[in-house]
UniProtKB/TrEMBL annotation:
It holds the Pfam family Tetraspanin. The keyword Transmembrane helix applies. It is a multi-pass membrane protein. It comes from Nothocercus julius. This is TSN13 protein. The keyword Membrane applies. Keywords: Membrane, Transmembrane, Transmembrane helix. The gene is Tspan13. GO terms for cellular component: membrane.
């Protein structure tokens, strides 16, 4: 179920033009396919009563649980300052994500709006843009809590 959700959300994001970075979509689809294959291994092991296959399935599932639990706890533990630092690092390292954010959230610049820089947002023509940090901060805390909670839920249901 989780694997199909990952694949579907990645395809939906690229289909609606929300994500233009093929690397992000590729990673989401690859993780979805990996989880689907692991579930298939568990299903085959259970149907055939194959103990070795089930043993390796449980080991891989334990490793996935540890990673998923750790990432979920990290999402829930980030404070506003750490979120801001992570957002700035991401902003400075990727031009394609920067263009997507400016276009989708209708903002320009990270901390301040500079009319001399190029921006793909609709508000750039009227020079009435908000800095993207303010817009992103409205959503980032809520999204991190949501993703952390969902991650914890699925990590414990996997066990």
């Amino acid at each position: 179920l989780v694997s199909l959700l990952l694949i579907g959300i990645a395809a939906w994001g690229i289909g609606f033009g929300l994500i233009s970075s093929l690397r992000v979509v590729g990673v989401a689809i690859a993780v979805g396919i990996f989880l689907f294959l692991i579930a298939l291994v568990g299903l085959i092991g259970a149907v055939k009563h194959h103990q070795v296959l089930l043993f390796f399935y449980m080991i891989i599932l334990l490793l996935i649980f540890i990673v998923q639990f750790s990432v979920s706890c990290a999402c829930l533990a980030l404070n506003k300052e750490q979120q801001s630092q992570l957002l700035e690092v991401g902003w400075n390292n990727t031009n394609s994500a920067r263009a997507d954010i400016e276009r989708n959230l209708n903002c320009c610049g990270f901390r301040t709006f500079d009319p001399n820089e190029t921006c793909l947002s609709d508000c750039f023509r009227s020079h009435q843009c908000r800095p993207c940090l303010l817009v992103i901060e409205e959503y980032s805390g809520m999204v991190l809590r949501f993703v952390g909670g969902i991650g914890l839920f699925f990590s414990f249901t996997e066990v």
